[in-house]
């Protein structure tokens, strides 16, 4: 799985760090501990990033989801 942040150029370095960790499922508290920030600072950075308008796209290969089988299975459908 890959995470792509569209509009990342609008974000500061710290905002990119926070957004990436948040999208990976970390809580504000864990992000803060990892980056040496308070959870309220993390919340502020996330809010600023959202206001700048970025978009997160998760890229998941279809074969890892079991959506694409052999050619025989596709022709049966």
From TrEMBL:
Biological processes, Gene Ontology terms: DNA-templated transcription initiation
Transmembrane annotation, as ranges: none
InterPro entries registered for this protein in UniProt: RNA_pol_sigma70_r4_t2 (IPR013249), Sig_transdc_resp-reg_C-effctor (IPR016032), Tscrpt_reg_LuxR_C (IPR000792), WH-like_DNA-bd_sf (IPR036388)
Segments forming a coiled coil: none
One term of GO molecular function: DNA binding
HTH luxR-type domain boundaries: 25-52
Organism taxonomic ancestry: Bacteria, Bacillati, Bacillota, Clostridia, Eubacteriales
Pfam entry (one): Sigma70_r4_2
Residues spanning the signal sequence: none
Name assigned to this protein: ECF subfamily RNA polymerase sigma-24 subunit
